Amino acid sequence: MSTFDQEKIEQAVRMILEGIGDDPDREGVIDTPKRVAKMYQEIFSGISEDPSEHLRTVFGEDHEELVLVKDIPFYSMCEHHLVPFYGKAHVGYIPKGGKVTGLSKLARTVETVTKRPQLQERITSTVANSIVEMLEPHGVIVVVEAEHMCMTMRGVKKPGSMTITSAVRGVFEKDEASRAEVLSLINR
Ligand SMILES: Nc1nc2c(ncn2[C@@H]2O[C@H](COP(=O)(O)OP(=O)(O)OP(=O)(O)O)[C@@H](O)[C@H]2O)c(=O)[nH]1
Ligand SMILES: [Zn+2]
Fold it and tell me: Domains in the chain and their CATH numbers?
């Protein structure tokens, strides 16, 4: 995978400004290519990171019941239109064999996965799969709710519409009662 290329983005943004019929040399936008490149470095920083890495932090804690971090806010960029979609992620798992990770690491995993050109479905399944791979828990549930600006400010123009995706693994797949319990906590 190629690395972040600030100059290439600056050239491209300048061309976009030209392409939309603006003057890239006028005072107000002269520094815009630089600003956008700097912003992209920040909002696409997850491309060069491995989400699973955060989950290497484990404590040998004997807790084999639900751990749920809900309402993790995120901003991502729709890979089809490169406009934002944003909302909340809820991440729950039931640890096994003492593999309990730090609570912030669940939010950091969401951060890495969302800071890329994305699809909401892929965010949801990548977070769930990273937890399965690294923590080998009894079960994982990830619910993501988001508003997509490509559906609000343009195109179909449906502001307020929310997309909800979920990924369930292990016990949450098989046990309806466990799934219902965690969903009721998320919706509380
Ligand atoms: N499944 C999925 N679709 C998404 C996501 N973000 C945006 N999309 C959709 O991607 C689709 C792209 O459709 P296209 O027909 O190729 O592009 P378009 O002509 O701009 O589509 P419209 O948005 O309907 O105007 C649209 O239906 C978007 O709503 C996402 O996270 N998951
Ligand atoms: Zn889109």
Answer: 6-43 (1.10.286.10), 54-187 (3.30.1130.10)
